[in-house]
Structures are given as structure tokens and as C-alpha cells.
Specification:
Elements lengths: L13 H25 L4 H29 L1
Length: about 70
């Protein structure tokens, strides 16, 4: 038995958590870009949809992550 044998269910990997949120936001942005491209959107509409969905999904994801981490 080691000196640090306390059992803790709290996972403390903030870099991994932020990376998961960022990658999820990128997937959402790519889906938005594909949808706008499929609807024959122009280049500015495609970039706008991708950028907006990236920013929105990253912001929401970080808010959810903060809420989950504050509860533990």
C-alpha cells in the first residue's frame, strides 16, 4: 500500500478535457460547413457557418465542462 492510497473519483486532466471540447467543436463546425456547402452556399456563407458554429459549440462546451467540474 502506498502513502497516497486515498481513493478519489475526481479526474484531473484539464488539458485533455479542453482538447475534447475543442475537437468536438471542430466536428460541429465541419458538419455545419458540409451542410452549407450541400445547400450551395457561397464561400462567405460557408466560412461564416463554420466559424460561428465553432465559436458557439466551443463556448457551450466549456460552459458545460465548467458546470460538471464545479459539481465534483
Amino acid at each position: 500500500m502506498s502513502a497516497h492510497a486515498t481513493q478519489s473519483n475526481v479526474c484531473r486532466h484539464p488539458g485533455r478535457d479542453v482538447a475534447m471540447v475543442a475537437l468536438s467543436a471542430v466536428v460541429v463546425a465541419l458538419v455545419a460547413v458540409v451542410v452549407v456547402m450541400a445547400a450551395n452556399g457561397g464561400p462567405l456563407a460557408i466560412l461564416g457557418a463554420g466559424g460561428t458554429s465553432l465559436a458557439a459549440s466551443f463556448t457551450v462546451g466549456m460552459g458545460v465542462l465548467q458546470h460538471l467540474k464545479s459539481g465534483s
